[in-house]
Amino acid sequence: MRVQLYLIGVDGCWSARWSIALEADKVYWGRKAEERRKVQGGRKFGGREREESIVMHVWRTPLPLSAAEEAAVRWSEENGGRELEERAALREFVKAAQVAGGIEAGGEMNVDKGNGRTERVVFGERGAGQNGKNIGFVEEECVRAVAARLYGRAALLSEAQELLAAGPPACQAVAAGGWSALAPALQWAALRGLVRLRCAVAPQQPTASPLGRLLLPAPMRRGRPWRRRCLRCGSGEARMNRTACAACGSSACAYCEACLTMGRSRECGLLIHGGGEAGLADAQGAAMSGAAPGLAASRAHRMHAPAAFAARWGLSPAQQAAAEAALSYVLPRLGGVRHSSSTNQNAPSRWAPARSITHHSASQPTICASLNQQAALSTADIPDTQPITSSHTRDTESSRPSSAPSVSQFLIWAVTGAGKTEMVFPLIEAALSFGGRALIATPRRDVVLELDPRLRRAFPGAAVVTLYGGSEQRWEDGDITIATTHQLFRFHERFDLVIIDELDAFPYHGDPQLHYAAAKAGVPGGAVILLSATPPRAMQKSVRKGQIGCARVPVRFHRHPLPVPQQIRMPRVAELLAKHKLPRLLLARLTSSLARGAQCFVFVQQIRHTEPLAQLLRTALPGIPIGATSSKDAERPQHVLAFRNREFRVLVTTTILERGVTVPFSDVFILDADGKLFDEASLVQMAGRAGRSKDDPNGRVYFFASTSNQSQRRAIAQIKSMNREAKKNGYLLPQ
Ligand SMILES: [Zn+2]
Ligand SMILES: [Zn+2]
């Protein structure tokens, strides 16, 4: 889309912005000026002579959104925070618009020439700058309804339309009215600081190295093209594609291919971030009238010890201890969260991308702090917008209870089969009792579907929303949201408690977009709980350094120790297949497991080994039904089901079944355990398939390999250390 770029000056304090509905801005600034005129009552303001109150220079030609954004940021970078004389401000404005808009500046800049390109509007003289009919004005009630509906969302324009269309009547009317109703409503909400209108793929100032800054003077740096960054998923220039675009007229309009499956995020498209203090108040009101107990009343819960929340869920001693530790982290963050501002000053870590990148835009409704400090100017009718300038950050820590720990996230490191879902119930209960919202993000859709009924049963009074690709609850608001990880792209600072399940698993692991999305889904200063049986080493290091809080659950829910893998020498699978011969030791162990009635998982590295190995096993173990599956297997669900139902006694598989599949009474055979596709985490996960049920807690696990490598040794050490810890803490059942 194209938008209107303008410069607004209040008492020599200028800022550059853009608008999707300029008439709304004109009414807004006209009213601002009117208030000032009334308050001043004709006397000169601030002891200085002012010819007029508020002046606007509009760039006549609508610019592609990203060009307008870039011009506004360029202008602020070079002039923001200084008091400027009008001609100087305008001269810089023309320059910024020309550079960003790709208009050849050429020769000496001429203000008069610039004036021809801009329209000057003066507000504050009686009736001046007003269009009389209030075109562009949107009723307060409507603005607030729209803002409340968008609260905590990160929505592309089309998504915002769907969201509003599925909302209360006031929002439906806006959505039904098309662009001419939607644009002013969104623009008003933005002017009021209730939502933020962003460029979905935003121009980023090139960051010059200190040396570059020395060698390249500012005017020359100015000429360098700005890179693009997707504000929805955080992807940079490397993930941008460019196409000719009818919407903005550009021949190379960038869009983000990284989050394309969630709709096209492009540089001339809007990304709407719902938020702001007033939006928060509305959302809070909604939460209080809903199922969750009232916020004020629930303040008393802060007096409760973590144990009080953890008590009623029937947890095992190890689960209870971990839940209490997590609650000590969560509770202080819920208490102060309603007062925290939108700027997170926690040191960013690898797991929490800096939020500050989302808070610097010059397109925000920014008026100079000097204006805001004139308390007499703020009225109940049109409150001042928040003074969020690039240099202005508020201290979030001071607004939170001093007991809030300094770690930004908390890891629950629970062994496979520990019953982690039960452990997060008390955390969710705590969040709801503070009137907060909770999110559980998990990589797999089947886990989402499985959690849904369990949470509904556990929290009958709460609204539970389940989100995945194609979910029918797509635009519903809930107290508890369960979502697949990609759905996180659609949220912005919404949840007080964010729980991320299996953070080390595909697709989450190694995907910076999902880390970015997870970090921005929670409110700043809120609680982030990470769940994993096998946290990555970098995270384990952060735990040791005290950067991330952590509770270990070293024992399974049935309170038996984890089966410790046995290492057995064996040639590589490729060799066995070439020779059509299986080693005696492997067959002996398999026969023994089958004899005791166990189901046998046989893990291999390569997809191409699964079926040939199954064939070889069928020959060697006549009469035993043996199946094979992999990510390439079209009938995988049926094959897994057949294995679960004991129609197959042996299943040859790749790491595709390393987690998530629980088959009672099973033993685990890992072949080529020294292969490079099986790392420590993967080995621990595969080993975790054995001994899951309380009727057969002592399953068997074998590492078959030609060599013993570090991954195997570390996996075994990790399992043994968990068992030792469980024993030391008295978590194991007496033998
Ligand atoms: Zn993206
Ligand atoms: Zn475009």
Written description of the protein model:
The chain is an alpha/beta fold. Helix 3 crosses helix 4 and helix 5 (140-150) crosses helix 11 (277-289). The N and C termini lie far apart (70 Å). Helix 24 links the parallel strand 24 (666-670) and strand 25 (701-705). The chain folds into three domains: 1-135 and 342-377, no CATH class; 299-337 and 399-553, 3-Layer(aba) Sandwich (Rossmann fold), CATH 3.40.50; 566-728, 3-Layer(aba) Sandwich (Rossmann fold). Strands 15-16-14-17-18-13-19 form a seven-stranded parallel sheet, sandwiched between helices. The longest helix is centred in the middle third of the chain and has 20 residues, at 317-336.
Keywords:
binds zinc ion, Rossmann fold, DEAD/DEAH_box_helicase_dom, seven-stranded parallel beta sheet, six-stranded parallel beta sheet, 3 domains, nucleotide-binding, ATP binding, alpha/beta, Competence protein ComFA, 25 helices, DNA binding
